[in-house]
Design goal:
heterodimer; A: 384 residues; D-Maltodextrin-Binding Protein, domain 2; 2 domains; disordered N terminus; B: 545 residues; mainly alpha; MetI-like fold; two-stranded parallel ribbon; 4 strands
Chain lengths: 384, 545
Amino acid sequence: MLACTPLGGEKMTEYPVRRDPRTIIAVVSICVILVVAAYAAITWWRPRFVVYTYSSFLDWGDEGADVVLERAFAPFEEKYGIDVEIILLEVDANGIISKLVAEAANPVADVVIGIDNILILQEAAKSVLEPYTSPSLSLINETFVELLDQDHYLTPFDFGLVTLIYSMNTINTTTHPQLGNLTFADLAEAELASALVTENPHFSSPGLSFLLSQIAVYEKLLSQDWTNWWEDVKDDIDVQEGWSEAWSVWSSDPNKHLLVSYGTDPAYSANYLGTAPDTAVAPFYYNEQYWAWMQVEGVGLVKNGPNPELGRAFIDYCLNATVQTEIPLNQWMFPVRTDLTLPSAYQYAIHPDEVSVLNQLLSSTEISENLSDWLTLWDTTRTP
Amino acid sequence: MNTRELLRYAILALPFLLLAVFLLYPVFIVTLQGFFTGTPFQEVITTPTIQFTILFTFNQAVLSTFMAVFIGLPGAFLIARLRFRGKSLVKAMMIVPFVLPPIVVVVGFLQMFGPNGVIDSILMWIQGSSTSVFNLATGVPGIILAHTFYNVPLVLLMVSASLERLNPEIEESAEILGARPLQRLHRIALPHIMPSILASAVLTFMFCFMSFPIILAFGQGTYMTIEAQIWNAFRVFDYGQASSLTFIQIIITLSLAYVYIKLGRQETNAGPTASIKTTSFNRYGVIERILILGYLVLIVILVLGPIVTIARASVFDPIAQRYTLEGFVNLFSIGSQGGLRYFINSLFYAGLATIFAVILGIPLAIAMRSRSKTIPTLASAMILLPLGISSITVAYGLVLAVAVPTGLVTNPWPIIVVAQTIIGLPFSARAIEIAMSKIDPALMEQADSLGASRIQRLLFVELPLLAPGILVGGVFAFAMAIGEMSATLFIALPQNYTLAVAIYDYLAVRAFVEAGAAALILVVVCVVAFLVMERISEGSTGGAL
């Protein structure tokens, strides 16, 4: 492109034009500077009030997250005259903590939504949060605070029951009666084990809830070594990285019938189909009771965040009916404000009073002391 | 020292300084921090899973290297010795897999060897089965095959180039003196090409050793390389583990890089020979012809197959078993979930990274050709570092040491550009250095004696002569940057996602057509870039490896 036109073949009487490369360099630089300036101007960061959460936050409704977030948080923006920037991180809750740890020296987020009752037991999670006891806690049942975090690093936001679900089009209690009173031993049978999809407990909160459910049942109810079950299912079970991955495998692979997911999925299915649901739950059955793991998700104040006062006000605001009423149909979790009326589809969900929660079998001290060892052991069972 | 010389040194020092700030310092900080605050090294390397990962990283790299050399060697002989039409085109095309992003290769592999892929569909049709019967695009076979795909062309190019430099007179003399073909192969050809086989094997081993996107896609979370485990360690904030693994990885890759450079030096001592003896296909015997054809079929399935079938992946939805254009609709849709943003991001980041890689590559290349003793070594080391250091560690270092203090974390695109520049720099610097070595020093002297100033000489003599080399380097850097996934995945917020990252995301939730369409676009971009490069360099692109 520069002045290097070959002489051969050309008329030899003409010399190649000696263009000054400086013009070309100058033109290229100007173009580049313009493009960069334009891109920078469009994406330029304006100081706002920043909330970190995971990507699917309030995104499972008919309207999509954009509309719902606007409706839920516009009154807060108006009251305090700020822009609330909800950054949806394309990661699970672990990833959010990891990001907050990386940014600890100079945090940009004020509030984080979506850390649950297991994740908060890890030191790293506590190290990036600032305890705050919200006056709005009076609006909710105290058991949620007890289940989530008694030190108030987190304020309860929503909760759900982690359990197994199956699609009734492929299997049901007639073809597989054991689904009606499921045990881990049933699941270890090759037929069901190879139909089961779960999530990696390192990266996914339902995956970790499932692992802890299994540990609770084996160690506390059956007094057996929990790793045996994982050895039994090692070659059959499908461990996906996160919930979205697991869901898409379960819903598209004809050989996968069972999924570790939430007890509200039948309600989601009923709402989606407009009829009775085609998804059912199969909670574990031991000692004549049904069991499930209760996941409580919280909202927390980021330590040394730029706007701590606003952050606290935001946490209070999250327990308002304006926000909480959006949860059932968009997040498909139960709002912690149990005084609010649930949508009719929720008649198909399994409710907390229908099961015993497995969390009661493992104390939070026990979990926080053993979690990393359990995960290492789990890794070992997964190593080929 | 006068100001002009000072300026010269300042320009030469610029890339070193920038690499020190954006590569050495961040990686150093992160590794050190993890060592002193996280899980101790002792504990990390005694964990059974980690030991398995380290062992697996080695084993798969050895196996992949063996496969690549084993399949690549016959091809190298064919390319060098067989006379056929369009040979230069075939040789040129060999570089294409190298510029294809790994995540795109994953898409191609799923389509060629995966469930409901091309081979599977044919087998299903033969057997009359309605369910998938064949799947090689998963687990260890998937990993090894994909690595083989990547590296067979590398072995082919490097070894055939070396064969072509073998003076035919030596072999002719041997023939006249009564040496049988096998003896000639054993005593003459093999010793001659050994350094190039070793060099390509070392390079292949290094690429496989650092493999990341292919491992994420096919490893099912159980088969991991050290690189993938570093990524996991960062995600679960086990910084001690990340540091220990980074340390182990750097030691190994830098040793390999050192060996590679040593081998490269040996190789350049052989003079170029253009008069290689070639034979046309018809002169071969029947068995030889069958072998050659069989080999070609294998190469077509393994190397060409995954590239061509990406086109099918972009329109065929394996879940619904139907053809659809939804992938392209998504790719060109605007909005927060639309693919157009990813496309623009990809072009923008890679474009900027290319410019920087070229600007920094020129002084680096000059430094590599410096007459001083230490500067060339230092420069070579500097351009090898990005190849040898885990890009995940680089990304985390950049976030921690640059993005957090400057507040760029909420809008981290400049950091992505920096990371992509670092990844493209070795390729641009190398290509420019090769172009420099081809400049006739007499031209410089003539310019000097005709009274050109240093700046005039640079602008009117050196740069125009270097222009093709610079463009080749730029195209290479561009291909590397636009296909970069690991560092970008680590740094980016969803609004900064590039096509490569988006493909990974689409694959994770089995949005296969969306992934396919995005992959096809990247293939087109890379192939166009490659064609441009071919035209400019007139077929000498392979040298940049």
